[in-house]
Structures are given as C-alpha cells and as structure tokens.
Amino acid sequence: MRCNIETMFSNIDAKDVDGFLANLADNVVFQFANASPLNGKGAVREGVASFYTSIAALSHEITGKWEVGETTVLRFKTVYTRHDGNDVEVPCSVILHHIEDGRIDDYRIYTDLSPVFAPAVH
Predict the structure, then answer these.
(1) What domains can be seen in the chain, in order of their start residue?
(2) What distance in Å separates the CA atoms of residue 58 and residue 11, rounded to the nearest whole number?
(3) Which is the most buried residue in 13, 28, 37, 69, by most CB within 10 A?
C-alpha cells in the first residue's frame, strides 16, 4: 500500500502543506536538492512553508514512475512561477521510501533550482 502520488502532488502544486504532510511518516527524512535534510514533520512543515513563500506557484507533470519494493522513483517536468510572473521549467527526480501503512519515511528531491532564482533575463 502506498500513498496516492498524484493526489500528493496535487496538494504540493496547490501549496497545501497539510495535505502534503498527511502522506509523510512522523519521523520522515526530507531532503530538497542540496539543502540539509529535514528530520520530522515539524521541520518539513517549516521548510516547505518557507519555500512556498519564495515562489508564486508551481506545477508538476509526471514523466516517469518506477516502483520497486517499498521504493518509488519519479521523474517530473516541474514549472515554477516566480514572483515576477516568469515561468521556469526544470527537470526533477524524486525518490520515496514507503513504510507499511503507505506513508513516506524518506523523501529525496533531486533538481537544480538555480534557474528559478536567477536574475530575470530581459
């Protein structure tokens, strides 16, 4: 049994922190790109909420999904809308580990966000 990945990413794209957190185990380890890992749902709540303030919007399109045992690997086309209104598309991969009840206890995001926060090109 696993959480519903599509629903979870709909929550992420809606910036619904609580909806996202419902998919995570209490002791989750969450790492976004090259940032230090966050341990536990409280730390993830703070980190994700803070990240959401740095962008106007985001959307994920799943372009690949592989499941082996308790692990799910996802490939995305992710579009971030900056506060200046510009959209920036970046590739992204996510590795998830699920515990018996389907929640995620290890969540790793691999992407390069530097284009999202680079100065706008005119």
Answers:
(1) 5-117 (3.10.450.50)
(2) 11
(3) 28
